[in-house]
């Protein structure tokens, strides 16, 4: 497997089932997380926070400030299967949704000053409106994992990310 990845400093491998031992090859565990899943929610529930779809490069730049790493380029806004949502300046919460393979990936969740469980609960409602009938999936750790579980997601297995 390692023959298929770029072999240099910063090289990383997502071990989707947490079964690899890459330490002998010079890797260390960057983080361990849990895959999560939630059955599709029905359309019609209200959100607690006021969510807006991020649609312009300026909005994406502002959204990126709330998330952290500035790795989101404006070209992502043109991809029909990818959506970013944020609440604006008041509480600075946001998340991304990515439709793929008959499910919706939930990622890049941040709460700003909002309650994290509220953000995850609202994410479920927004996803149901955006991509009706599709289950939600993703992976999380720490406080985000706990909030997702409280909001109705189930943990379905481990994953590990290794880095050289």
Spell out the key features of this protein.
164 residues; alpha+beta; Aminopeptidase; 8-stranded mixed sheet; 3 helices; 32% strand; globular
Question: Could you describe the 3D structure shown?
Answer:
The chain is an alpha+beta fold. Helices cover 22% and strands 32% of the residues. It contains three helices and eight strands, in the order E-E-E-H-E-E-E-H-E-H-E. An eight-stranded mixed beta sheet has the order 1-8-2-7-6-5-4-3, with helices on both faces. The relative contact order is 0.27. The model has no long low-confidence stretch (mean pLDDT 92).
Question: How do the strands and helices of this protein lay out in sequence?
Answer:
Layout: E1 12-15, E2 28-38, E3 52-53, H1 57-67, E4 82-86, E5 94-100, E6 103-110, H2 116-130, E7 135-140, H3 142-151, E8 154-163
Parallel strand pairs: 6-7
Antiparallel strand pairs: 1-8, 2-7, 2-8, 3-4, 4-5, 5-6
Helix pairs in contact: 2-3
Mean pLDDT: 92
CATH architecture: 3-Layer(aba) Sandwich
Q: Indicate the structural class.
A: alpha+beta
Unreliable stretches, pLDDT < 50, 5 or more residues?
A: none
What is the number of independent domains? Answer: 1
**Helical content (DSSP H or I, runs of 4+):** 10-25%
CATH top-level class: Alpha Beta
How large a portion of the residues is in β-strands, by DSSP E?
A: 25-35%
CATH H-tier superfamily: Gcn5-related N-acetyltransferase (GNAT)
Number of strands: 8
- Please tally the helical runs, counting DSSP H or I stretches of 4 or more residues: 3
